[in-house]
Write a structure and sequence with these properties.
This protein is mostly helical. The chain has eleven helices and no strands. The radius of gyration is 25 Å and the shape is elongated. It starts with a helix and ends with a helix. It is a multi-pass membrane protein.
């Protein structure tokens, strides 16, 4: 066995034993016992693959504990679905790497088939509460981004002090969050949705959190135009992170959704800023 091939096999061995620990720990996080069993069985298969490679290398390889810790922490924060979808994409990468080793070890074909079966098992088990309410989260998040971005841009030009802008933004945003949650509840209730209250909670919570993040610069920084610029940057970051999460968890087009939401939110902000400037001149307001 040449050094290049041995290096590839050692990397594969370490990856397998690392994923054994990842799947085992993710199984402990799974609330659904059937899902937990699937994760444990996949973990055991990964361990068996690592043992197979050990017979070829004769080396005991330590798992990548940093990767194990990062993956588990990510699952705690963003949920199992997001993490498993990311791992599913990596499984495809692992299958392609095995194809390169298959010439030297025909047994690798079975391992590659196991990896493909893992992907199907993962896809079949993905059913997380958070993703059931994506529509409600999108409603709250998108409305908050569009409405409050425009409002804050208008307030920035029309009003003088950042504290007053913060007050106006908080009153507008928090009121809108309750209004949006109530509207979502009544709409879902009218359609006979038994989960209307939870749907409304996700909508209102997404709106409220977005409002707080967008108002923070005006509360912390006394210069209103700098605060507005930071708020717009926060808006873009929120849109980026949310759409990345959804694109991975729901297999959607990230680029299209990101640019669409960014264009709408910043477009409304530009329009509101211009409108505030025109009205300020017309009404002779000096603030």
């Amino acid at each position: 066995m040449d050094e290049a091939l041995k290096k590839q096999i050692l990397a594969a061995q370490r990856n397998e034993i690392t994923e054994y620990h990842v799947y085992t720990k993710l199984a402990d996080l799974a609330k659904n016992e059937q899902n937990a069993q699937v994760l444990r069985s996949i973990g055991e298969a990964e361990k068996a693959h690592a043992e197979f490679w050990k017979t070829k290398t004769g080396v005991e390889v330590e798992p990548n504990w940093g990767k194990v810790w990062r993956t588990v922490m990510l699952a705690r924060i963003l949920g199992l679905t997001f993490v498993l979808k990311r791992m599913e994409k990596n499984e495809g990468t692992a299958s392609r790497k095995y194809a390169e080793i298959e010439a030297a070890f025909p047994e690798v074909k079975k391992i590659a088939e196991d990896e493909a079966a893992h992907e199907k098992s993962l896809l079949a088990m993905l059913d997380e509460e958070l993703l059931q309410y994506v529509g409600s989260i999108v409603l709250g998040l998108n409305d908050a981004l569009v409405e409050l971005t425009g409002a804050l841009a208008g307030f920035t030009l029309a009003l003088g002090d950042t504290k007053i802008i913060s007050l106006a933004g908080l009153v507008t945003g928090i009121s809108a969050a309750f209004s949006m949650a109530a509207s979502d509840y009544l709409s879902s209730k009218a359609e006979g949705d038994p989960k209307a209250a939870r749907s409304a909670l996700y909508t209102g919570l997404a709106y409220f959190i977005t409002v707080i993040l967008m108002i923070l610069p005006f509360l912390l920084i006394p210069y209103k135009f700098i605060s507005l610029a930071i708020t717009l940057a926060i808006v873009v970051v929120i849109i980026f992170l949310f759409n990345y999460y959804i694109s991975v968890a729901k297999d959607l087009n990230f680029r299209q959704r990101f640019w669409e939401m960014t264009f709408i939110s910043l477009g409304v902000a530009a329009f509101s800023f211009t409108l505030g400037w025109i009205l300020k001149i017309m009404l002779g307001v000096d603030a």
